[in-house]
Amino acid sequence: MTAESTATPPSSFDDGAFLKLGLSPALAAAVSALGYEEPTDIQREAIPPLLAGRDVLGQAATGTGKTAAFALPLLQRIGSSDDGAQKIRGLILVPTRELAMQVAEAVHKYGRPLAIRVLPIYGGQAMQQQLRALKRGVDVVVATPGRALDHIRRGTLALDAVQMLVLDEADEMLDMGFAEDLEAILSAVPAERQTALFSATMASAIRTIASRHLREPVRVTIAREHLAQGETPRVREVAYIVQRRHKVAALARVLDMEAPTSIIVFCRTRTEVDELTETLGGRGYRAEALHGGLSQEQRDRVMRRFRDGASELLVATDVAARGLDIEHVSHVVNFDVPQSPDAYIHRIGRTGRAGREGIAVTLAEAREHRLLRNIEQATKRKISIESVPTVHDLRTRRLELTRSSLEELLVSGKLDSYRGVVEALADQYDVLDVAAAAVKLADEASDGGEREAEEEIPNAAPPRRDERPSRATRSRNEGAREGREERPSRSERPRGERPRGERGKARRRDGADVTRLYVALGRKAGVRPADLVGAIANEAGIDSRDIGAIEITDRFSLVEVPDDAADDIIRALSGTTIRGKRVAARRDRAGA
Ligand code: AMP
Fold first, then answer.
1. Which of 190, 282, 422, 511 is the least buried, fewest Cβ under 10 Å from its Cβ?
2. Distance 69 CA to ligand 1 centre (A)
């Protein structure tokens, strides 16, 4: 491969691309701080009309960046709460409790500079907590339809000031039997509000809702690009479906199996690039990060090391890689499914050139299955979903590699100085055994010592939601809809741990002190930021806005909370469980 340093530096490494969509400097800076380098397709298309006050009917699947596509305009349109507004001005309806938490967390993240108060409300959570939070004043509510309607009927959810309503995953809400609830909620919000409806499909029931409740909506669909015949590179395209927490192990397994000569791993954000590079470094891989946060000089240095073989893999964002003159790599790995078919094609176009077969591996979460299908439809190519190689596969593969190395040596000769050793041993041992022992030695030496993770990596099945329910299932769902809301996670979704750089910035709006809590559960227990936010907000009745930076290590977590609430939180947490494990929390001795 040839890898030259850039002739033309990539263009948008600041928040300019988001500003161009009409977003305020504060919001553009907020997404830039999250490591987003450029808007995704759905964001590029949906944000301007939403900012202009138009209704939008959007067709986009999860994983395309659609949450930001509606959340950013919503935040900008409803403005900050500093003017003393107490009323709910944004309402987002979502099908499940998981999604309610995730979307609320995203709105909180994007809305941080505007001091927006967001509250998820869903079935299964104690009503009292929701009532208390609602009383304190909330700007944006993210709710499942059943629970929203409960509150409306009790008179505890005042929607008369709602300026923007979002129906997220509307097809899913209908499939779950929420049609009537949606109608009732839609008639409880002011007629002059703005409405955005997002759905993965445009089934006729969705079109009916849209025609009844949206006003001259702008239709936004992720364009399906088709590659011209003959342009397609020779690439073997594979996807592994794994849970997020197994992705690094899966990537390591791919690296060990494939023994790639040159490889680029693509991530969505700068933050992810940095984190993954660090993690891979910790596992003994020589990885280099390449993203828009680097100076030209740093980029040149990274490329030089990659060219010289001082680093074996590049971890990059799309934008950073686009500016590079990299002719050919043997492997492209998508650490996440790319947000559009176009991005996928650009990425895999890096490999499989000049008559050689390249390999493109995509690590997808179960919930991203639909995105993979979209890509297949757009590219008219098959992505084969395979099982992550097992430990046994890895051993077999390594033996194969050792065997071919031995064959090369045998052909090249020059073994005279070693024959003496074999001859000496052959007096005492069977020659075959001597050879086998030598192979064992070579094999063990080739595994990179600690690299091999002995654990198996489970494959995550695609979610059931991809199979459209039959009529019978649908009506059963209607009866059980509140139950559905309470079901545990239907799939794992990435929840950005807050970047380290943000630590210490977590100040409450009133500037009160923060304290760091030590929670004796970490990644190994499956803990994610949302679990901690959820537990603290629910158990101690703390506004999630008041929870600051969260750091999760393998064995423990550190969470910044308001100093004056710390003792209450410790008490409340000690009676509860996270991911089925009892929580022990105390003030972190190192202090915040
Ligand atoms: P969603 O489709 O809203 O579930 O978003 C999928 C993932 O993409 C989330 O992890 C977001 O944080 C991330 N994301 C959203 N917009 C961007 C962007 N412009 N650049 C990079 N990542 C993004």
1. 511
2. 9
